[in-house]
Amino acid sequence: MEKIITQCSSCEAKFKLDAEKLGKKIRCPKCKEVFVVQDVEATAKPEPVKAAPIKKPEPPKAIPIKKPEPPKTAPTPRPTAKAPSAPPVERQATAPVKPAVVPLKDRPRPLKVKDFFETQFMRFLPEKAEGVNAHISYDITGEDGGQWTLIVKNGTCEIRPGADPTAKSHATMTSKTYLKLAQGKLDGRVAFMLGKIRIKGDKTSIATVRECFEVPEV
Fold first, then answer.
1. With helix as H, strand as E and coil as C, how does the chain read?
2. Residues 70-127: tens digit of each pLDDT
3. What are the chain's domains?
4. Full-prediction pTM beyond 0.90?
């Protein structure tokens, strides 16, 4: 039978025992103390520790060095032929277009002072205006009044809005008086005698110019 060497835990005496007593409690034959049987030689000899194999460090891998690429140069643009430019077009000056004048008969009622002045050139009689030289500035007061200038000279007629301080004759009247005169409902000489017309400057040309226009049909 296999023998083991054990040792008392109290007196440390060593002696041989059968292996079947391993791990059991016995009484020491020397000091009479009870202890647990252990294999002293098995515990005294530790198993050799196997050393892990030492790996040799691998040599560092060489990093490939890239050669710098030469800088790319932009392609030189080819000269392009320019298309011949068209010659500048000369702009011809055009005269401003005057708005068409609405005849007196087509204008809304009631007619106003400006309606008669704006259409007076349509009633002009050139044959009656030979030798007439009139330059009159009208100042019409009251409702829908205004200022106009009439020029009759050498068979021509010009009427424009606004007063003219250089006119030879200046006539002032109300809009009611002018509308009656323009429609032939009031004689100019009677209106002057009644004080409804005030005239400064040449009075003769005002009386003469009346014969150069037709009486409108309203």
1. CCEEEEECCCCCCEEEEEHHHCCCEEECCCCCCEEECCCHHHHHCCCCCCCCCCCCCCCCCCCCCCCCCCCCCCCCCCCCCCCCCCCCCCCCCCCCCCCCCCCHHHCCCCCCHHHHHHHHHHHECHHHHCCCEEEEEEEEECCCCEEEEEEEECCEEEEEECCCCCCCEEEEEEHHHHHHHHCCCCCHHHHHHCCCCEEEECCHHHHHHHHHECCCCC
2. 667 666 666 555 655 665 655 555 555 567 899 999 999 999 999 999 999 999 999 9
3. 3-44 (no CATH), 104-212 (3.30.1050.10)
4. no
